[in-house]
Amino acid sequence: MKIKEKRSECPISLSLELFGDKWSLLIIRDIVFKGYHFYNEFLESGEGIATNVLSDRLKKLELNQFIKSEKYQHLKTKKLYKLTEKGIGLIPIMLEMMAWGFSYDETLLIPGDRISIVDRIWNDKETLLDEIIVSVRSFESQNFC
C-alpha cells in the first residue's frame, strides 16, 4: 500500500487522511471499546464490513502505525491486532465522539448494563479514559460499550 501525499498542511485534513474513514474508526472502536483483536471479530462486529475492505483498512492502519499485528501464539496462522501508542492517542477522540453521539441522538439504544458508561462519560470522563487506556495497554479485553 502506497503512502499518499498530504492534501494540505491542515492538521484536521491530515487526521482525516490517516484515520478518518468510517471503517478505520470502527476497527479502532472495536479494539478500544469491545476488546476485539482478531480479523473474524472485526468482520462479525455488526456493521457489515466486506472482507476486502476490512483487509485494506487493517493494512492502512498498520502502515500508518495506529495498529500492529503479530502472530497469535496459540495459532500461528492467526494474526492478533493491537493499538500502538499512536493508536492509543485516538482514545480521547473516540470517547468525545461517543459523548457527542449520545448528546445529539436520543434514539441511540443503550443496553441496561451499559447505562453506567453513559453516566461516566458525563460525570467521570477522565477516570473512565484512564481505565480504558490501561485496559488497552495491558491487553485485557474489556467491553466498555
Q: What proportion of the residues form beta strands (DSSP E)?
A: 5-15%
Order of helices and strands: HHHHEEHHHH
Number of strands: 2
Structural class computed from helices and strand pairing: mainly alpha
Helix fraction? 55-70%
- Poorly predicted regions are none
Query: Could you describe the largest sheet, including whether it forms a barrel?
Result: 2 strands, antiparallel
**Quick check: average pLDDT?**
85
Order of strands, main sheet, comes to 1-2
Question: What does the overall shape look like?
Answer: globular
Task: Report the end-to-end length measured between terminal Cα atoms.
Answer: 32 Å
Number of helices: 8
Rg over CA atoms, rounded to whole Å, is 16 Å
What structural keywords apply?
single chain, two-stranded antiparallel ribbon, 56% helix, globular
